[in-house]
Every structure is written in C-alpha cells, then in structure tokens.
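Re-run with default settings, no changes from the original entry. Doing this only to confirm the output is reproducible before filing.
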Amino acid sequence: MYCQGNSSLNTIHKTYIYSLYVVFSYSSKIAIDSFGLECDCAAVSCQIYVTNGMTGARKLDTKKNALSNQRRLLRKSASFRLSIALLTGAAFLAAPHTPDILLHGVAGSSFGQARNLPSDYPRVKFTDVTQEAGIRFEHFHGVRSTQLPEDMGSGAAWGDYDNDGYPDLYVVDVAGPLTASAEELAHSPGGNRLYHNNGDGTFTDVTKKAGIGFKGIGMAAAWADYDNDGRLDLVVTSYDRIILYHNNGDGTFTDVTAKAGLDKYRGFWTGAAWGDYDRDGNVDLFICGYVKYQYHQEDLKKTSLQYSAVVPFTLNPAAYPPERKLLLHNNGDGTFTDVAAQAEVDDPTGRSLSAAWYDFDGDGWPDLYVANDLWGSKLYLNLHNGKFKDVTREVGLSDFRGEMGIAIGDWDNDGDPDIFVTHWIYQENALFDNLQFIPGEPGKAGPLFFGDIADHVGLGQPSRTYIGWGTSFFDYDNDGKLDLFVVNGSTFQDDKNPTHLIPMKNHLFWQHGSSQGFYEVGALSGAYFNEAHVGRGAAFADYNNDGNMDVFIVNQEGRPTLLRNDGGTKKNWIKIRVKCTKSNRTGFGAKVEIEAGDEKQIQEIGGQTSYLSQNFQEAHFGLNLEKEVAHLKITFPSGIVREREHIPANQIVTVVE
C-alpha cells in the first residue's frame, strides 16, 4: 500500500491493525484510515492518518456536495471495495491481539464538539411524565451479585394488544439477582409489567389480569400476531428461557411456550426480532443468543481484560463462549422450528445482543442484521430460498467493536436504509451510510455498500466516553429529517459502591440536514437530559396520538422514564398503519413511501428494534410545513401495492392490503 506521496507504509504500535476504512477527500484522492498504519513521506497533503484522520473539521455546511462526491467514488468499483473489505478482515485476523489499541477509537475526521449550534434548532421539550402517566415500576429488586446476566437487561415493547388504536406498553424486568432462589423470585415485588393505554395520557397496570407477569432475569420483549387471528401476541426472552404468550382477545393471555415447541430452548437469550423471511404470510422469529454463562463462586474473585479495561471476570462477555442463535420458522399451526443452521444464520462465533429484519438491498425480501458484542456483527442477505448469505465483509460492515443497539432508517432521504449502532466505551457509535443511492441522483442504484460516517456527521466524538444501548431514528421535530436518540449507561461498577453501576446521561441528536449532520441538543430539550441513569432499553411511539414521537426508557436498577414530546414546532405530520389480509397480519416488512413537497421518505414497518425493545408498529413521518402528502405508496410483503394521493396532514391513515 502507498500513500499519496508514494512512500511506503510503516506499521506501528505493536503492528496491530484494528480496522480499515476507506474514505475520500474533497479533492477525490483515495485515503485509507486505519489503526497501526503511518506514512513516512511527511507530505503536507498526505491522505493517510492514524490518530485524528483527515485533519481539520469536515465543513459539510460549506461543501454541501462533498459527501455525495465521496459516495459516487466509493460506488465506482465493486472489485476495489471487495478487495478493501477482504484486506480489512485479513489484516485483523492476522494481527496479534493487543486490546489496548482499541481505546484510541476509530480514526477519521470529525466535527468534534466545537461547532456552533444553528439558530434554527427546534425548541422542542421532552417532559418526564412517568409518574403522572401511572407507570409505577422499578427495575431490579435485590442486590447485584456482580454477574453478567443481571447487568444486560432490560427492554420494553409498544403494541396495541386490544386494538383500540392506542399503543400499550410492556416492560421487562430483572426480578432479582442471579443468586436468588426460585422461591425468592416468585415472591419478588418485581416482574414484567403490562400497562394498558387509557387514551387520555395515562396507563393502567393490567399485568395480573393479563397473566403475563414473568419473574426472572428478563431481557427483551416483542409483539407480533404470530397466528394471524388479528390480535398481537407477545414473546419474552430471558436468561434461561423464551416465553410465548397467546392473546386470547379478552384482555388475557395464555402461556403457549410448550405448545409452540419453544420450551426446549434454554440459554442466555437477548434480542428478539419478528419478520416473515420466507414471505409465506406467517411471521417468523429470530432470537439472539449471547454467551454460555456459568456461575462459579470462585470466579467472583477473578478479574479479566475487556479490551484494555480491567473488569470482574463474571462481567466480561469474553470470559464465556458464545451462545447459539435461533431462527424459529413459523409452521403456520402454532408451532415453530429452529432452522438457523439450515438457513446459515447460526453464527457460532457471535455474542449477539440485537437483530433487525429489513430489506437492505431493495429486492423485496427481508434481510437480517445482527449486532454482536466484542466481535464481528453480521449482515445476511435473503436468497429467497430459505437461506441467507453472509455479505458482511463485502459490503463494508466488518465492525470489530462491541455492538449493542440498532437503529435503521434512511437518515439522508436518499432512498436506501442506513444503519446506526451503539458501541462500548471509547469505540464511538457508528453510522453505516448505505451507498446504493446518492442524493440528487434518484434511481441510480449501485452495488450494496456501507461506509461508517459517524465522525463526519457529528455522531462519533460525542459518544467516545459513553456506553450506548437503546437507540432509534425518529423525527422528533417533524421537519422531515430523521433525528436520533441514544440511551447510555455504564457496565462499570461504582468504585464507592460496587453493588451499583455508574450512571450516564443520554443523547438527543437533532439532524440539520445531510450536508451539516447532527447536533447533540439534549441539554436544550428538557431537564431530564441533565440526569444520569444506567440506561438500557428504549422503545419509541406516539403514545398519545398527538403526532409527536415519545420515548420510553428502561433504567437498570431504577425507575423507567416516559418522555412525552411536547412539540413546539407546529410542523405537520402523518402516521401510516397497515392492515394486512394476505401478508403477515402485523405488517412486518411493509414498505411505506411518501412524497410531500420536494421530499421523499421511506420506512419499513417493524424494522426498529433498538436494544431488547420494540417500537410501535406504524410509520411516522414529519412533513415540515407541507399540508398534505402528495403521494403515498405501500408495498406489502405479498407484493401487493396500494397507492393514494393528496392526503391531508396531521392524521392517522390506515391502508388495507
């Protein structure tokens, strides 16, 4: 490899290459960013950097076409991209493991934190209404015993289980420490909770009546109508087991875990993602397996290295082998069969925390992204025959950082889905920009390829000293551009009181457009953002149907937070719900496209899984000042297309397949 000045590259810092990134300067010269590489040419214009990437801030606000130019160049040669991807993996695998290098973060230019906030930032306030809404819940009962399963949960899920038009809320709990006996857990005041939305801004705890108050080391929850009877059912994951509840239609649920054939799967199960991967009309289920955790009392006295940080042995996921993954095919008769191995998505090396179904390549079939902790996340493309192809490296998604949460959305409105993932401390969160389409060039699709541009759009540096979990794209100010919420919380114990973890503040990123990127505006958006919590899961919904997206956050060892978006921008919106008659009844995979003014936006129903959580099953679009949606197009998983025109703003529209 050679730099711009034709000098050879010298390997430094223990010869360890963390990862290889390809970026382009404004002058269209190829640049290679990587750990462990340095150029000795001393040329002022050299494009290879180690510690701070391309020096100086990337002024995307004054060079508005720079990012698009980078994308055009990246797309020009598929063989070049494949070579780089393979070289990335080869360099990583061939190099000796030196964890301390990871604490330097990802090289690359950054907006940093010195930018001035534009004067037109939205004056939107989020208000903590947890108590007044009637949500009386506290996560984790008892004293932590410094074991990994206790610290990873939990999440929440929005779903309208009684079909009254308002999102209801299911919250997952860790009912007690791992050392608690079965009897102690049974008598714990904790346990999962179901809150019915009363439609007036308040909720009622109906857990006892519903019969879904599981008590254990709870992780994730996700709603889906798995038997197509028109009512949402619920799956819950935990350390030890999976629970499936069938909705009886009268406000109660029946535990059908054994009947569905799921009682035999025992393990450390984390994220749950529903999706109809074979498009047979029955929704299937992917379950993330984390690690094969085993408790030995003597291990509590040990320490180990997680990257370069010294942590208790029993809190280090690297101390335990990976757990298997499950792809539970819906047989259409109320039972499920694990086909992960046959479908080639079992991945025995990954410690999985989150997963999401989304049509990344635009062929109409749901693909699968899996976020793995510590090592190599995965993108599996659907081959339409019950099998998948791992294309992670060849599409530029080799990410050897610890991934936790996933957000998927078309952040720059260029027609293709992008991926945001949260990472561990000093690794920076990533925004993998999908380079299939380029803004201003509609219809010109190139091969599927992604580039991490988090630093270039203001999302990298602000996350360096945080540990991110739940996340989602959402347009909280209704200006037609997707913003981003990130929940943070440490995995490090408090030195003063090791029975507790260190709290952190959460991040709210407002997008000012693809040319200027994101700005962290939490401190200006409500008193809550000045508080620190040990955050984990986050679920997003407009729970009061006022057109403003709200957020529910699960805090480890504490009370959750319901953030009501009080608006303030007076901008318009529309929400699209689907009612399927041939496709899976939940509508997972339905593609919703709108045109309003000069903007086109696209979303998929069910594609947002956050961390151990689930957003409400509808597509919310901000319309800015537009008073109508000029054109609406919905492509259902069955292939049926429904279109409507001139739809007035500020309403909920339900489209039947």
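The first strand starts at residue 9 and ends at 11. Residues 303 and 313 are 5 Å apart (CA to CA).
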